[in-house]
Structures are given as structure tokens and as C-alpha cells.
Amino acid sequence: MLVTTKEMFEKSMKEGFAIGAFNINNLEIMQGIVDAAAECKSPVILQASSSAIKYARVNYLMKMIEAATEQYPEIPIVMHLDHGPDFETAKMCIDNGFTSVMIDGSKYDFEENVRLTKQVVDYAHSKGVVVEAELGKLAGIEDDVNVEASDAMYTDPAQAEEFVKRTGCDSLAIAIGTSHGAYKFKGEAKLRFDILKQIKERIPNTPIVLHGASTVIPELVQMCNKYGGDIPGAKGVPDEILHEASVSGVSKINVDTDLRLAMTAAIRKTFVEEPNAFDPRKYLGNARELIKETVKHKMTDVFNSCNKA
Ligand code: G3H
Ligand code: 13P
Ligand code: ZN
């Protein structure tokens, strides 16, 4: 069933679990995710970035979602725009049947972020669509910021309260130490749970979103490297920390990098072990299977979202 995040977030906040939001850009990735959700009886958020939409084409994406909801009517499925860059992209997604959109105004100053987010919220709500906004900046280790500057990048709890009040956004992505991609930490992985707690105290009814939350699963990185890849020193957010986030008020956990690793690892392994194989269904089928296992692991052992559909 295609739904908004409203009810699943209410349940997640009441019962203390998180919903996985997985990036899609082709058939096998999407099928791996929804097959896992169906086996786990878990709600699931499918999300596409604007570059993924450009790649896969919006009408193809929506037809695939329609097929998934027909196959699994018992599973609540959300179709979400990830990192919407502007009003026009958010509107295009809403007009094409997305049930949720993110407007990412985090690159702007506070007032412009409020203005842009409010503009999207007004349009989305008039169409029954929900909106995720972002406040604070996700740094990458390559950004090399000093301690004072990195403090300024975390979400400010008082600003978060004002932002939600003024924009009417339905959920809020916060910066507490995660970053996008496969290189999240130089040293020990650490998130600012103290800031999360302060934010939850100020906006207890607003679902919180964690971006850049892939584990960068070591077994998948090793598998990529073993079969000819070269991804040295990759490091993500360990499962234990994500599990703590899931039970501490984070309602949505974004995962893209782990799916990319699973897909690449499975394809590399097939090519090395079966050099004669050239039927795409062979290596893409193996990729779909490993994506499914990866998503099932997260739903079962990390997010606690199984049997919450
Ligand atoms: O947060 C970004 C997501 O991983 C999507 O990345 O814009 O390359 O599709 P993308
Ligand atoms: P990862 O790069 O950690 O998978 O984060 C994905 C994300 O935040 C998508 O919006
Ligand atoms: Zn993100």
C-alpha cells in the first residue's frame, strides 16, 4: 500500500523503532528492498534523489512503485524525494504521485531555509503530501573543519524548535555527526546523542531523520576489495550506534552507500567466479539477492522495524 510517513512515524515514536529509507535507482535495487520488507513485515521508505530520478526517469520509477504496492498490499510503502534541491523538483515529484518529499535547504542561511521549506510545505500539504526538511550541515571527513567550525555544523536545538514551528514541516533531518558516502570517520565513529536528546526535548512530536547513516558494512567492503575493487579505509556508522539511535527517537534512517556496496560486491564476485557468465540476469539477480539480505539484516537486527507493518 502506498502511504505517507504520517502513521508509520507516529508508531515509530510510540514504540521506539526506526524505519529504513533506502535509495533506489533501478529495478533490482527496488525489488531487493521491497522483498526484504515483505519478508520482515516491515514498513519501508523508498527514496530517489533528483539525480536518481534523472537516471531512472520519473514515470518508470512510479510504475515500478505501483507494481511493488500491488505485489505487497500488506506492506506500507512510501515514495519519497531525497534531498529535493528546489521548489520545482519537489512540485514535480508531488504532481507525479510521490507521497513524501524532502526539501533540503541546509545549504542556505536559516531565513532562506525557512522560506523555501514553508513554500514546499504549503504546496505539499494542499495535496496531502508530507515534507522532510533539514537543519544543520552534514560534514564529510574530507571537509577538514576545526572543532569550533564542526560544532557550528551540528543542528542547534533551539533553532530546530523555531524552524519546525515556522515551517510546519512534518519531519526534520538533523546533523549529529553523520555524513554521506563511504568515508564518514577518520578515527572512532561517534554521534552526538546529547544533541539528539536536547532536540527531542524541544520537539518531541516531530519525527527525526538521520542522513548519511550507512554502516559501510565491513564484509561488503572486503568482498568488493577481494574481487578486484579498491575501496581502502572506508568507515561508516556501526550497527550498535544505529540501534541506539533507533530506540532514542530517530524515526527514519537513510541508507544508500550500503546498497551500492552490496550491488557492487555481488556483481564483482560473479564476474570473478564465473568469467563465462554474461547473462545480466545472473549478476543482477545475485545483486538483488545480496541487497535483500542487507536490508533484512538492518530491519531485523538494527532498526527493530520487523512486524511493524
Ligand atoms: O544523499 C545522497 C544519496 O546517497 C543519493 O545520492 O544524488 O548520487 O543519487 P545521488
Ligand atoms: P549514506 O551515504 O550513508 O548511505 O547516506 C544516504 C543518505 O543520507 C541519503 O539521503
Ligand atoms: Zn542524505
Helix-strand topology string: HEHEHHEHEHEHHEHEHHEHH
- Structural class, judged by helices and strands? alpha/beta
Radius of gyration: 19 Å
Hetero ligands: glyceraldehyde-3-phosphate, 1,3-dihydroxyacetonephosphate, zinc ion
Architecture, CATH level 2?
A: Alpha-Beta Barrel
Low-confidence stretches: none
The count of domains is: 1
Termini separation comes to 10 Å
Q: Which range does the strand content fall in?
A: 5-15%
The CATH fourth-level homologous superfamily: Aldolase class I
Number of strands: 8
Count of runs of 4 or more consecutive helical residues = 13
CATH topology: TIM Barrel
For the biggest β-sheet, the strand order reads 1-2-3-4-5-6-7-8
The CATH class assignment is: Alpha Beta
What does the main sheet amount to? 8 strands, parallel, barrel
Mean pLDDT: 96
Question: What is the overall shape?
Answer: globular
Q: Indicate the percent of residues in helices.
A: 40-55%
Summarize the structure in words:
The chain is α/β, with parallel strands linked by helices and 309 residues long. It has a single domain (6-302), classed as TIM Barrel, CATH 3.20.20.70. The protein has 13 helices and 8 strands. It has helices at residues 6-15, 27-40, 50-56, 58-71, 87-95, 110-126, 147-153, 157-167, 193-202, 218-226, 239-246, 257-273, 280-302, and strands spanning 19-23, 44-49, 77-84, 100-103, 130-135, 171-174, 208-210, 250-255. Helix 5 (87-95) runs parallel beside helix 6 (110-126). The protein is globular. The structure holds glyceraldehyde-3-phosphate (G3H), 1,3-dihydroxyacetonephosphate (13P) and zinc ion (ZN). Glyceraldehyde-3-phosphate binds next to helix 3 and strand 3.
